[in-house]
Amino acid sequence: MIFPQIPHNEKERLDALLAYKILDSAPEKDFDDIVKLASEICHTPISTITLVDKDRQWFKSKIGLEFSEGARDTSFCAHTLNNPREMMIVSDSLEDDRFYDNPNVIGHPNVRCYVGVPLVDPNGHALGSLCVIDNQPRNLDNFQLLALEKLANQVINLLELRKKNFQLMENHNMLLSKYKDLEQFASIVSHDIKSPLNNIMMLTRLLQESNHDQLDGDGMQMLGYIYKSSEELKKLVDAILEYYKYDNEQVIANENIRLNDFMQYLIDILDTKNEFQFILPEKNHKIRSNKMALGQIFYNLISNSIKYNDKPKGIIHIDFSETEDFNIISIEDNGCGIDKANHHKIFNIFETLGKTDRFEAKGTGIGLSTVQKMVQKLNGKIEIESELGKGTRFKVFLKK
Fold first, then answer.
1. Histidine kinase domain location, by residue (predicted)?
2. Which of 394, 116, 379 is nearest to 253 (CA)?
């Protein structure tokens, strides 16, 4: 018996094999189907997908064998590693100096005919082989040999796909962990800021009221600046808390909602003092959704239509349409509009486009991010149509 030689690139080859994270993994149907097909095409009782580890050969999939691994020293498949571009064909092992006294030949599983196609990764590393084995000496025909080569290519494709799926899962888990850390950090910081911030606002207001007669105009103005800045910071903190509030909660669309009644409720809360004209759908449509989520979505959208409107008479048109899969609710205004070049980034968190609203207040850049998040939780999507100086229309697609 001649022992299989160790390839000159053994370290790199083993590293490549380990990178697939497949050794000792559970059976997988896609791989099992390949050995079954190889066995049927070649009319052999045994077929394996063999991966050659440092001191052993391990079968990812097998048919006709009871054991799942064997010694590398007596492995037929280990011989394929040194000629990774050539199929290894042994028509009769008893006539081959390498194998005539191999334990796998003179004992179980009595290998007489062996054909193995090297499994070579995209970087040229031989990982093992796809093989078929018979207990009788024989030759395979050209069709069978070509079929084995194609099946071996599919094994490599499956290995590559499996590796990429693992990498995607690892990246997903890493991003999820970082996101949770960021969420926790934002929550802690926001809560730690809110308490002293409320104290500053309360004390500032107290100073304004109790020292009104003692402070000159500049002093009162400075206190006003302090209060206004604190108020803006509080708005930002509240928005951050709101943004992360529902991250870990499931949003279930299980409530019947009359659209016009619901929109009128939001309009009343916003209290525009007749400065805006609201146009509602002619029909009071009934939809099934989540009131809390819809409140977040349309309060923010209608509020933005009010705040970013520079026309003498603001008009906000709320409309409804539907398709087979979606209820579509649109909020259209005649306000400032948004430059088309900025449409792609308006849903980014903290993105304000440098604008101040009609009350000279700067937004937090969190409202539309919250809107998009809530729409996605309802398995929907949101689209924008806007032209600078003419107005904006948001279309919210809610899954039925």
1. 188-400
2. 379
pLDDT digits (tens, 9 = 90+) for 264-321: 999 988 887 788 999 999 999 999 999 988 988 999 999 999 999 989 899 999 999 9
Structure tokens at 256: 């019947």
Q: Which two tokens stand for residue 22?
A: 């497949």
**120 bridge partner residues:** 126
**Residues near 178 by beta carbon (within 8 Å), at least 6 away in sequence:** none
Match 């064909």 to its residue by tokens: 89
Rg (CA), the chain: 35
pTM of the model: 0.54
Q: How far is CA 112 from the centre of its chain?
A: 50
pLDDT per residue as tens digits for the range 198-232? 888 888 888 888 887 788 888 888 888 888 778 77
* Cβ count near 221 (within 10 Å): 11
Backbone angles phi and psi of 109, in degrees to 5: -100, 20
Q: From CA 194, how far away is CA 367, in angstroms rounded?
A: 19
Amino acid occupying residue 340: K
Contact assessment for residue 69 and residue 52, using Cβ atoms and an 8 Å cutoff: no
Crossing angle of helices 29-42 and 142-210, in 10° steps, is: 170
Report the C-alpha gap between 298 and 265 in whole angstroms.
Answer: 11
Non-local (6+) Cβ contacts of 12 within 8 A are 125
| Residue bearing tokens 């394929």 | 80
- And the tokens for 242? 């709101």
E-state strands within the chain: 46-52, 56-63, 69-71, 88-90, 113-120, 126-134, 255-258, 276-279, 286-289, 314-322, 326-333, 381-387, 391-399
Which residue's entry shows tokens 């002619």? 282
User: How far, CA to CA in Å, does 23 sit from each of 78, 96, 230, 270, 391?
Assistant: 16, 30, 59, 62, 60
Residues present in the chain in total? 400
